[in-house]
Every structure is written in C-alpha cells, then in structure tokens.
Amino acid sequence: TISFTLSDNAYVTLKVFDESSVLVKTLLDGELLAVGGNSITWDGTDGSSALVSDGLYSYTIDAVDDLGNAAVQQVGDVLLDTRKPLDLISPEDGATLAGTVTLVATQVDDYTIRSDNYAPYFTAIGTGCSRGIGRAAQQVDGTWTGINKYISTFAVSRSRG
C-alpha cells in the first residue's frame, strides 16, 4: 500500500518502476483524488496483469490541481514480498479456538523465527536442553517439555543475501 496526503483536491498520477527504472505499472493516471490522506494498493502485477518478481520497486506521485499547478513530485520505495513467512498447518482456517491453542507451522526458506519468552520465574533445566523457562524446557531437537504459563512473542524476518 502506498499512502500519501494531498493538501488540496488534485489529479494524481502514480507509477511503479523496477530497479532499472523501467515502468512496471501505472496505478493512477490523472485521477481526481480528494484532499487529505489517500492509500493506493498495488497488487504486485505489471501493466499486463502478470505478477512481477519479489523485490524493491520505486514509485513516483505527481499531482496537479484544477488550475494546472503541479506539486513537487514525490518518490518512494515499496517492497514486494509475496511469500508467506510461515505455512500454518494447524489449526485449520476457520477453526473455532478456545482454551490452550497449539500452533503448528513450517518455516519457509530464508526466514528466521526468533522467540522471546517471558515468565514470572526462571528455573535452569538440566543437561540436554538448550534453554528453559520455569518448568518448561526446550529440548535440543526444538520440542518443549514440561508445563508453564508464559507469554511468547515471535519475530519473523527475511534473510537478505
């Protein structure tokens, strides 16, 4: 989504370019938009409606008011990344959830999943464990054993290379 603010009603042209500055798609072509915040969603396709490759694209925004006064061209970047960072296996889409829920997912190549766990207490767990929280321990093979109430936050990031 490309967001921008207009100080007055204006005819707006918004174009997306690839890394070689070749026009990929014109999202708006002199369309009248209202003063204030505007958001335009690019679906990741080119002018022929074919999906383009993931990557960093640039865009230009040109605006002209009713009197023909042109605003300074605005430019920016938009990252197209169509891959899912996780492939959720369970629970299935549309499942009604209650109580304790176990999420089962597989990690997509070149994404890193980092888990930060918080608990009101910490107890070191014996050998064979890579880390422990309270009475729960993550085994070397990545599985958890034990019981503990804790909060997990997960950060998913794409490796660049």
TrEMBL record:
Instruction: Output this protein's name.
Output: FlgD/Vpr Ig-like domain-containing protein
Looking up Pfam families in the UniProt record yields:
FlgD_ig
- What are the residue boundaries of the FlgD/Vpr Ig-like domain, all occurrences included? 2-64
Which Gene3D superfamilies did the record assign?
2.60.40.4070
